[in-house]
Request: fold
Amino acid sequence: MPYRGRLAPTPTGRLHLGHARTFWFAQQRARAAGADARLILRMEDLDAARCHPEFAAAALEDLRWIGLRWNEGPDVGGPHAPYEQSKRQEVYLEVWQRLRDGGFIYPCARSRADVQRAAQAPHAEDEDAEPIYPAEWRPPTGIGREISTPGQANANWRFRVPDGETVAFTDALCGPQAFVAGSDFGDFLVWRRDDVPAYELAVVADDYAMAITEVVRGADLLRSTVRQILIFRALGWTPPAWCHAPLLLDENGKRMAKRHDALSLTALRAGGADPDKIIATFARELAK
Ligand code: GLU
Reply:
């Protein structure tokens, strides 16, 4: 099967150097996979309150400026259009229905703030850890099967994780990974109360529909990968291969993405930066 990778920017702001480095790395993976490899750009603009069309347009421009090219995407079309998540609601609804029918998900009136208050953060030192949904709040299996649309529940929908099971995968860059369901991560969101599909559901639905063979993204999403593996399994689908790139840190060892002043590509471009020099620094780092 020819390699199919993807670039999946979220247009909630300007892309910065950390994004550029991860996307450039994704392009390198695709190039290394041979002449028939394809790279897909998918705009992850599901959250209408936080995503803006001008950021989406800027993302495409900035990525082109830094030298990235894609074979399918919102601006170039392709066999799996539309490539904007905001236009793919039916794809997500179908996945939601299958998960509901299989008893894998349930509606839950508790808010994320409730979970935050009730839960002990599992590993304080791990900044990607989320508070664990308390298992005693879970309704019995089968609850929600009679609900015909996710919005009808007026509740968050969560995926019931197999408590105690170690979910493992081998990452092309980070090596063997393992997270224990119920202690490293808990029941996670698949559809939000405001009737927006959650990231984990949308990304699995799209990576499957777009026939992605390898997911390349930042290492902050390692834990999301095991959630996504559970969704793939529930649907009876084979997951793609995984490759998580280490995140770009600033001089104080802080993640670029978490800094408000992280250098945006737009600012670099406006300031006359040379994109080839930027790429050369990525390539040097990779060679280390
Ligand atoms: N859209 C996500 C982000 O910008 C990336 C999701 C993914 O690659 O799976 O963080």
Q: What stands out?
A: The beta strands are 4-7, 38-41, 105-108, 156-159, 166-171, 175-180, 188-191, 214-218, 241-245. Residues 17-32 form the longest helix (16 residues). The chain is about 30% helix and 15% strand.
